[in-house]
Amino acid sequence: MEESNILTEKDGPVATITLNRPKALNALSSALMNELADALEGFDADDGIRCVVLTGNERVFAAGGDIKQMSDSTAADMVKRESPSPWRRVAKTRKPVVAAVSGFALGGGCELALACDMIVASESAQFGQPEIDLGIIPGAGGTQRLTHAIGKARAMEMVLTGRRVEAKEAFEMGMVTKVVPAESYLEEAKELARTVASKAPLAAQLAKDAVLKAYDGTLDAGLDYERRNFLVLFSTDDKEEGMAAFKEKRAPNFEGK
Hints:
By secondary structure, the protein is α/β, with parallel strands linked by helices. The chain has one domain (1-183, 201-257): 2-enoyl-CoA Hydratase, Chain A, domain 1 (Alpha-Beta Complex). 48% of the residues lie in helices and 16% in strands. It is built from 11 helices and 10 strands. It has helices spanning 30-44, 67-71, 75-81, 86-91, 108-115, 142-150, 152-161, 167-173, 185-197, 201-232, 237-248, and strands spanning 6-11, 14-19, 51-55, 60-62, 97-101, 104-106, 118-122, 126-128, 165-166, 178-180. The strands form 2 sheets. It has a 6-stranded mixed beta sheet with strand order 1-2-3-5-7-10, sandwiched between helices. It has a 4-stranded mixed beta sheet with strand order 4-6-8-9. It is globular, with a radius of gyration of 18 Å.
């Protein structure tokens, strides 16, 4: 029997979802993302749950998308695999979600953390959008949510260079809610979730909705535009080269075609 890609637990009004592909550094396969979306929708429908914590492990939150799965995919394959998109399903979660991030949150992992409502980061956390090194771009909100969080200039640098930022810098940029010692990041996130869960649940949900509406009008269009550009890149030679180089553990040779 295959092990689940996620683990879930309930503690009073707080639910915790743990990404559970440690051997793959919690790479966000389509199976994992669909399980995650299912779990979040289940907790949304559970009146006993008022806030959700999403975490990985101390070494890695999620190191990115599943490159092995994507490397042989065409644009058409990606569209078929993600219809309906689990990322959109995750983003539509009504109840507040707190990301508890330790270690690597790269590529899709960074995008997943940004899709949550608050981020509690371990001092060891590292955030980044290294898709440019694979010949593609962020395709699950990175160009949009990151820009809303930290501004155009800093988001542009992270997206165009693939540079990682450590927890302290991420906090100073406005990307994360708080930075705490590695040994307490998960408990700190759960404590924040318990505080949120202690508030009026409908008010908390509507407060979340109202905050998101501050930029939702342009975000949706931006996400669609980003996704089109992301899918187009699956028809390029540079995508093939970037992902082949990743699997072969060598430097890519991009030719701009």
